[in-house]
Design brief:
About 75% of the residues lie in helices and about 0% in strands. The chain starts with a helix and ends in a 10-residue tail after the last helix. Pfam families: EamA (PF00892).
Length: about 280
């Protein structure tokens, strides 16, 4: 029961990142780049403390992790200037899984037929969600979130061999934070509000920094397959939170395509291939 409660709390924290970003950028007038930069800085500070300063900055894995983290944070914030919380989380989650599936195929891992079918269903759901027509998703923000999903997939793949997950994530955040500040200074584009700053700090320090730290402690207890299945709940929780807190109403296309994406991923996971990613 204790493990279930902590896992539920962590999934709620992951979903909260979507809601907090949406509230700040769309509701509080916060510039997306400002939100991303402050989120990275806040996360870096908390993770540095949690890792007790024992950070390793060298290695190819670190370079990939830092660039992927920065790309994820920026794309995530830019997308939520327009996308609803649940819709954005679905695109993000779907692209993370598609990226990791593609990496397995390119790496010549054994991929059974069941996983091919599940991957095809999930990809088809994303294509339907992003296709033109009634209830179509704005293509620019959708592509920004898709890029964030690809980046997070690379981040997850790069971190699989991390000897100390919390210290490795702390190092990535510490190195990505100044790059985020630099990108904000160079791009600019929008204002900053007290409410937006507070939401960015909450997202970085609590739902990202502490949420990631808790997740890394839970994954060994859950196992890879159960951890990955648990993340299927994130788009659902984000959608419910968006409906309750932001009055967002999901379209029929989102509901049906979302069921296709999550169902396809669940089918792939049922044979235990996908490792736990990080959202």
């Amino acid at each position: 029961m204790h493990l279930i409660l902590l896992t539920t709390l962590t999934m709620m924290a992951f979903a909260a990142n979507s809601i907090l970003n949406r509230m700040a950028v769309d509701g509080a007038g916060m510039a997306p780049m400002a939100f991303a930069a402050i989120r990275l800085v806040s996360g870096a500070l908390v993770l540095f403390v949690l890792a007790r300063g024992a950070l390793v900055f060298k290695g190819r894995r670190r370079g990939v992790g830092v660039l992927a983290l920065l790309t994820y944070a920026v794309g995530f914030s830019l997308a939520y200037g327009t996308l609803d919380a649940g819709l954005g989380a679905l695109i993000l989650f779907g692209m993370v899984q598609v990226t990791m599936f593609t990496a397995a195929v390119l790496g010549r891992d054994e991929v059974p037929l069941q996983r091919w079918i599940g991957g095809a269903l999930a990809f088809g759901g994303l294509v339907w969600l992003l296709s033109p027509g009634e209830g179509a998703v704005p293509i620019g923000p959708a592509m920004a979130m898709a890029l964030a999903g690809v980046a997070w997939g690379f981040y997850s793949l790069a971190g699989r061999g991390e000897p100390d997950a919390v210290a490795g994530t702390a190092a990535n955040f510490v190195l990505a934070a100044p790059l985020g500040l630099l990108a904000w200074a160079m791009v600019g584009g929008g204002g900053v509000s007290a409410a937006g700053i507070g939401l960015a700090v909450l997202s970085g320090a609590v739902t990202s920094g502490m949420g990631y730290a808790l997740w890394y402690r839970l994954v060994p207890q859950l196992g890879a397959s159960r951890a990955a299945v648990a993340q299927l709940t994130v788009p659902v929780i984000a959608g419910l939170g968006g409906a309750l807190l932001l009055a967002e109403v999901p379209s029929l296309r989102l509901i049906l395509s979302g069921a296709l994406v999550l169902g396809g991923v669940a089918l792939s996971l049922s044979s235990g291939w996908v490792r736990a990613g990080r959202t």
